[in-house]
Amino acid sequence: MKIYFSPASPFVRKCLVAAHELGLADRIEKLPSAAGPVARDQTIIASNPLGQVPTFFTDDGQVLYDSRVICEYLNVLGGGALFPAEGKPRWQALTEQSLGDGMLGAALLARYETVLRPEALRWDGWYEGQMGKVRDGLALLEQSTAALAQRVDIGTITIGCALGYLDFRYPDYDWRAGFPAVAAWFAAFNQRPSMQATLPHA
């Protein structure tokens, strides 16, 4: 198996955390990518017209994207329980995955606004709108951390990667001060070997 990889991508990290949890990480070859928010990777476009990471290749050559599809494939391949099969646990985990993905997407867009967009074209209202999604997501999690405890599934993995991305790209954003219960949960979850093995770097 192969995955187009960026060491800073939180969505790639999500896939790799899942692979570690399922005992599959050593079977996945990491293919370096030059994909970015403006310039798509022309090498990837041949397999994925979006030209972005993560793009994944199964052993039989099937191409999968994005992180939701890749993680579900890995879960089936590894015979795991990262995606609960049915009932309330399934819908809870999938909804938490959507929350984490949404927070990640908003944080990425806010970073692009402040780092990549020319200063004269930056829109403060856009930045605040995106970071408002992050804050509101944290507020919801602060009220429901008890439901996250002792669980390792696609919901908690995605939320963990979202919080890790905040630490990586927003070191001056002290989210822990306002959300101590989330901070305590993340402190424990982030010590998992899968999280430590996939820490992002520039």
Question: Under the CATH scheme, which architecture of the largest domain would be assigned?
Answer: Up-down Bundle
Looking at CATH, which topology of the largest domain would you report? Glutathione S-transferase Yfyf (Class Pi), Chain A, domain 2
Binned, the helix content reads 40-55%
Number of continuous helical runs: 9
What distance lies between the first and last C-alpha atoms, to the nearest angstrom? Answer: 24 Å
Class per helix and strand makeup:
alpha+beta
Average the pLDDT over all residues and give the rounded result. Answer: 94
**Whole-number total of structural domains:** 2
Largest sheet, strands/sense/barrel: 4 strands, mixed
**Could you spell the SSE succession in H and E letters?**
EHEHEEHHHHHHH
As laid out across the biggest beta sheet, the strand order is: 2-1-3-4
Structure summary, number of beta strands = 4
Shape: globular
Question: Per DSSP, what share of the residues sits in E-state strands of 2 or more residues?
Answer: 5-15%
CATH classification, class level of the largest domain: Mainly Alpha
- The whole-angstrom Rg is 17 Å
Instruction: Extract low-pLDDT stretches.
Output: none
Provide a descriptive summary of the structure in words.
The chain has nine helices and four strands; from the N terminus they run βαβαββααααααα. With 202 residues, the chain is of the alpha+beta class. It folds into two domains: 2-77, Glutaredoxin (3-Layer(aba) Sandwich), CATH 3.40.30.10; 87-196, Glutathione S-transferase Yfyf (Class Pi), Chain A, domain 2, CATH 1.20.1050.10. Strands 2-1-3-4 form a four-stranded mixed beta sheet.
